[in-house]
Amino acid sequence: MPLIIGVTGSIATGKSTACRLMAEAGALHCDADKLVHRLYDPGTAAFDRIIAIFGDEIVGADGFIDRRRLGAKVFGKPDQMNALTTAIGSIADAVERVIHDWNETLGDDEIAVLEAVNLIEAGYGRWCGQVWLFACDTDIARRRLAERNQYSAEEVEQRLSSQRAWQDRAPAADLVIFNNGAESALQNEVRENFIHIRQLHSENALPPSKYMAWWEARNDGAESQ
């Protein structure tokens, strides 16, 4: 079977840059965020449900839902975010279909990368041979969002307030990469780890992912409560 690397982390931690680098090195890449966006394109039942909840003002001039307008209504607001998730439908089913297709069509020596913000919590890590977590200091993320995305101070805080602490996710990750410095340092670290993991996979020497033990312990704890 191919090696599937799950990539996750909070906003502005370098996930997309890392995935781009691995794709350039030959990995197949799926961004779960973009996959979800297709689930509520115009004409879908999810589109209608979302408009019914959040109003026509979230629709852009092109007829598609404007992610920035929608984000202003849900980031940092758990009840609204839950309403959005329910309206979209089964995101896990869409992700699982991608994983199934990879396992059916890719060779044993190939690598695919699944990028998902909530990969750990949603259980997608069960389908991955490796889970990589990206992290950075909050002040650095704040600056990146303001400079890169041109977000207002309010928009920055909305998004940061909806993020999970990397420390809570680390026990489920096989690799934690801190992206507090220059992009060149991130690139070097990602490339080195990708080469190393690819070599281990080719030699059938890759140890089991830590994720399954974390997932089972989490579910056992939930059942005992």
Describe this structure in words.
This protein is α/β, with parallel strands linked by helices and 225 residues long. 55% of the residues lie in helices and 12% in strands. It contains twelve helices and five strands. It has helices at residues 15-24, 32-39, 45-54, 67-74, 78-88, 91-105, 119-122, 138-148, 153-161, 166-169, 183-202, 211-224, and strands at 3-9, 28-31, 111-115, 130-135, 175-178. The longest helix has 20 residues, at 183-202. The model has no long low-confidence stretch (mean pLDDT 94).
Residues in helix, %: 55-70%
Strand runs, count: 5
Strand order of the largest sheet: 2-3-1-4-5
Sheet-strand content, in percent, reads: 5-15%
Shape: globular
Characterize the largest beta sheet: strand count, sense, and whether it forms a barrel.
5 strands, parallel
Q: How would you describe the oligomerization state of the chains in this entry? A: single chain
What distance lies between the first and last C-alpha atoms, to the nearest angstrom? Answer: 37 Å
Number of helices: 12
* Topology as a string of helices (H) and strands (E): EHEHHHHHEHEHHHEHH
Radius of gyration: 18 Å
The helix-and-strand class reads: alpha/beta
Low-confidence stretches: none
Average of per-residue pLDDT values: 94
A few lines on this structure:
The protein is an alpha/beta fold and 225 residues long. It has helices spanning 15-24, 32-39, 45-54, 67-74, 78-88, 91-105, 119-122, 138-148, 153-161, 166-169, 183-202, 211-224, and strands at 3-9, 28-31, 111-115, 130-135, 175-178. The chain has a 5-stranded parallel beta sheet with strand order 2-3-1-4-5, with helices on both faces.
